[in-house]
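re: ur question from earlier - yeah i can do the single chain one, its not a big deal. heres the input i used so u can compare w yours
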Amino acid sequence: VLCIAVLLTTTVGSNAQWLDFANNKDHGSIGFNIGQVGTGTHYKTLGFGASIEAWGVYIDFIGAGPEHKFDNHVGEYTWEDSVSWALNIGYQIPVLPWLRVMPLFGYSQTNNGLTYSNTLNIETNENSSSLYHDYKVISGSRKHSFNFGCGIVIQPIEYFNIYAVYSRRAIYGGISLNLHSLK
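and the output i got, formated as tokens:
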């Protein structure tokens, strides 16, 4: 409903051709996003992700892992942690040259689990190393769901886009670099 209202409101006063899909061929971007993932569940948390857009097709991912998995404390206690993520795909509808609306659909997953502080794993390679604790999903806590929503993309200058997404399982925004402007 929000997407339709924005679409109708902005196109009524526009002098540009309504729904000029030829504008999509000039847009290609890659970006990063931040926001709430797991919205509407007990496992909502701050997540980070990425997006890519080419020829009007928009794909993004946002996720958050167990909060304590990379904690450096070792002891005889267990943390209750959760994992939430969402993957969306959509198509950008060019309302104005600087404004596009995206209906989105996708998949989301949440689960609850335990991070064990008494285990410490070390991964090393030639350039770096990382420490992490074991995380196990609590049986029956994994929830899969269909995700749907809407996004708005604003291009204030030719070099980058600002976007916001509201979906059933995530609310987030981001910034992306317009790859076509780098020519």
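The CA atoms of residues 59 and 75 lie 41 Å apart. not sure if urs matches, ping me
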